[in-house]
Amino acid sequence: MDIKEIIIWCLNEHREQEYLDFPDKMFDELDNESAKKIVAELKHRALFKLPKYEIAFQEWLKENDRHIWDDLWSCELHEPYIVSIIFLPNLVERDGRGFPICDLERNDNYFFNEKHMTDEESKVYIETSRVRFKDHKELTVAQLLALEISVGPIDIWHFAYKYKISIAAAKQAVEDLKDDFALVHLTDAEHLAKFMEE
Fold first, then answer.
1. How far are the Cα atoms of 16, 40, 108, 145, 163 from residue 111, in angstroms, in the given order?
2. pTM, two decimal places
C-alpha cells in the first residue's frame, strides 16, 4: 500500500472505530515520514493501539516494575496500550525507544534527552564512550546510557529492556552520570516537561 491508501484507511477507521489498530503488514510499511503525514492528516485527534513489539515491552514492564506500569495505564479511560496518534512516529522507528515514559505522576521519571547532559562534562564522557565503542572495548552501563541519550531521547525502562540489563543497573547508571556531573535528573513530570520545551 502507498501512503495515500494508508491515510484513507486511517481516516475510515477513525470515523468508524474508537482507535486505529494497524495490521502488522501495514505498520511494517510505515516510516517516520509517512507516520508524520498520518499525524498531520488526523490532526492529533485519533488514538491507536501500540504495535506488538511495544506491547511486549509493556508486558515486561508490568512484570518487572508494576508501579510504573500502573502509573502509565491503570487510570486510563481506554484499555491499556491505546495512545495518541502523535506518538506514531516514535513507534515506527523500532530503535528500542518506543512509547516514551516521561510523564509519570506517582513515581520518579527517568527520561532523558540531550538537554539533560551538562555541557562540558557530558561532552567528554560521550566522546570517551564513543572512542571505546569504536575500539570495540567494553562500555560501562553509564557510558552506554550516555551514548544512547546522545543519539536520542530514552527512558531507563526502554534502555534496560533494549540491553537486557536490570532496571536497578539502569538507575545506577543514572546515579553514576550524576556523580560525574554529566547528567541532570529531573524526576517530576512538570519540571521535566518544562525542561523539554526549552
1. 35, 26, 9, 11, 16
2. 0.90
